[in-house]
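The data layer described in this paper is built around a simple, fixed record for each protein. Because each token names a local backbone shape, the row as a whole describes the fold. We quote a single record here, exactly as it is kept in our systems:

***
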Amino acid sequence: MADLIEIKRGESRFHTKIDWLDSWHSFSFGPHYDPANLGFGLLLVNNDDIIRAGSGFGTHAHSDMEIVTWVLDGELEHRDSLGTIGIIKPGDAQRMSAGTGVQHSEINPSSTTDLHLLQMWVLPDTKGIAPSYEQLSISESLASNELIPVASGQGHLGAVAIHQREAVLWVSRLSAHGSVTVPSAPFTHVFVARGSVHLSSEDKKTEYVLAAGDAAQLTNSNTSRLTASAEGAEVLVWEMGIK
């Protein structure tokens, strides 16, 4: 199945909870630091955030990072120093390349509904590029019960482009008992956003059950499959090469 596989349970993640934010961090982030958990492959941040209605992150700065946001519920209002204003909804792929430096805010514009999103940071393959922003809707493709490219450094059609040739983010919304093949790669990060899945080797001799919030980190992975439970599932898979 893989030379190495490590299962990370959702409850083991770092946790930040304040009046307007409930955030779970897969890797070291902010005040949460573990030198043994600084990321996986090229993925440095995998934050699972619930932002209360009318709240959010005020203007703050980033540089030399590829930032991908995936909304699960609600809407996100993005504003940045490039003059971009975007509303990101479920089914939208959004990428901000921080490059030489950019400031932005991320707000839940609703007065009644909480916002649930995943934000992921990936190292760029080139530092000092011009900052940029891209947003695309891929909702129709997600109905196919397949892995759909959401953010890609390899020119996948329909995906936002990231400045990292060794990384592709795939998303699948699986119906009950739906199944997809996990890409083989030096580093593969599987995160379950909703529902639950079985991660199994091709011969089905090895199997793990992953619930919402759980992740699997596969190193030098061989062929494996994700199969949704009866409730279905939404999974995000980072396929990554060598740094």
